[in-house]
Amino acid sequence: MPVTEPAPAKVNLALHVVGRRDDGFHLLHSLCVFTELADLVSAAPARKDRLHVSGPFATDLPNGRGNLVIRALEKFRVRFPDHLPEGIEIHLEKHLPIAAGLGGGSADAAAVLRVLARMSEQPVADSDIFALAATLGADVPMCLLSRPCEVTGIGENIAPLATFPQMHLVLVNPLEQVSTPDVFKRLSQKHNPPMPELPTQLDRAALLSLWLADTRNDLEAPAAELVPSIPPIVKALAATSGCVTARMSGSGATCFGLYGSAAAAHQAAHDLRERFSGYWVAATPLLGQ
């Protein structure tokens, strides 16, 4: 029986670039949430290791070592050489667009680590899995957690939030892939103010809305230079009924609208599909605690 794990999309409700290290990595301050909308990873014992990719965005992904899923499996085998069957076949259902600012590759790798830990013939400590995740990329540890969190450093410092309101998102992507390094190259100011302090009890939609009003995504402007359709998408999301906040996620080009009810989100998604024919539009609840 295959072992299955979802790979939830990551959305940066706020993303402040607050500095740059000597090694070139940018320092961030971000509020990250995760959605019920997800890729799906499943794995089962096989004669040899292999990856099969299906789903709406399968053709956009490599299925060899260029895929973070394969690198996650390889690193797990090196770290825990006697824990897994001789071969593992991984099936990745790719429902999230590629290079879209949703942490899809990192989420897939994190889901693989969760699957392999469950398949392991010996117990694996959570601390060991998180340490392994950090070697795969800055976003992988937070995707391993997949719950609302405040993130600092280059993404390695993760503080889960004690409370978070039940909210819904509408995601819109113009189906244009964006290179994160290219976006950072266009960022003119790399030392910006951090996010305001988060409320101790962030448990109401109105409180979240007030807090978000004083935040931003510092990568939105440089990404819009590469993908001019981003500002019109954000404007259209902001104009939908019930939208609390609208902006771009991560390094783009996916934009989101935040809503207090499923009904408002689904109506907005319906309207936006009509307006942006050919774009990827999805409504989804956020994952809670």
CATH topology of the largest domain: Ribosomal Protein S5, domain 2
Which regions contain 5 or more consecutive residues with pLDDT less than 50? none
Name the helicity range. Answer: 25-40%
Provide the succession of SSEs. Answer: EEEHEHHHEEEHHHHEEHE
User: Nearest-angstrom radius of gyration?
Assistant: 19 Å
Active site: 10, 139
Protein name: 4-diphosphocytidyl-2-C-methyl-D-erythritol kinase
EC number: 2.7.1.148
Organism: Pelagibacterium flavum
Notes on the structure:
It is a single chain. 44% of the residues are buried. The protein has helices spanning 68-79, 104-119, 126-134, 140-145, 180-185, 205-212, 220-226, 230-238, 262-275, and strands at 3-20, 26-46, 50-54, 87-93, 149-153, 157-160, 168-173, 243-248, 255-259, 280-285. The chain contains 9 helices and 10 strands. Strands 1, 2, 3, 4, 5 and 6 form a 6-stranded mixed β-sheet that branches. Strands 8-9-7-10 form a 4-stranded antiparallel β-sheet, sandwiched between helices. The model has no long low-confidence stretch (mean pLDDT 95). Keywords: ATP-binding, Isoprene biosynthesis, Kinase, Nucleotide-binding, Transferase. Pfam families: GHMP_kinases_C (PF08544), GHMP_kinases_N (PF00288).
Secondary structure elements and their pairing?
Elements (H helix, E strand, L loop, with lengths): L2 E18 L5 E21 L3 E5 L13 H12 L7 E7 L10 H16 L6 H9 L5 H6 L3 E5 L3 E4 L7 E6 L6 H6 L19 H8 L7 H7 L3 H9 L4 E6 L6 E5 L2 H14 L4 E6 L4
Helix pairs in contact: 1-2
Organism: Pelagibacterium flavum
Function: Catalyzes the phosphorylation of the position 2 hydroxy group of 4-diphosphocytidyl-2C-methyl-D-erythritol.
Catalytic activity: 4-CDP-2-C-methyl-D-erythritol + ATP = 4-CDP-2-C-methyl-D-erythritol 2-phosphate + ADP + H(+)
